[in-house]
Amino acid sequence: MLLVDTCVWSLLLRRDGEDSAHTQALRAALHGGELVATTGLILQELLQGFPKDRDRLIEHLAALRWLHPDTQDHIDAADLHNNTCRRAGVQLGPIHAVIA
Q: Please, what sign has the CA dihedral across residues 27, 28, 33, 37?
């Protein structure tokens, strides 16, 4: 299963069509039938970044596998933030901690 972060989706959706190794891998996964997943957090970030594409994004992402973070996922995200990233001097926001 491939969970694609918002920044890769954004690169793929941008009008200037920047093609990176990440976007090529995503295209290959989508066209090759690989299981691609997303979460409501990623959908929200994309909708906020591409408001004019709202309906198209909702329709296309509906075809993906949806992951639904539960209570333990949020506990693990806080631990990742506090015990791993923060101690290493790495900044990690709440949304990205849950995704990670």
A: negative
pTM of the model: 0.84
d(CA 93, CA 16): 28
Which backbone phi and psi does 82 adopt, to 5 degrees?
Answer: -75, -45
The residues, ordered by sequence, that sit 6+ positions from 16 with a Cβ below 8 Å of its Cβ are none
End-to-end CA distance of the chain: 14
> Which residues make Cβ contacts (< 8 Å) with residue 33, sequence separation at least 6?
none
Give the gyration radius of the chain's Cα atoms: 15
The number of helix segments (H) and strand segments (E) in the chain equals 6, 3
Q: What is the DSSP code (8-state) at residue 85?
A: I
Smallest CA-to-CA distance from 10 within 67, 48, 55 is with 48
Residue holding tokens 């791993």? 84
Instruction: Give the pLDDT band (50/70/90) at residue 16.
Output: confident
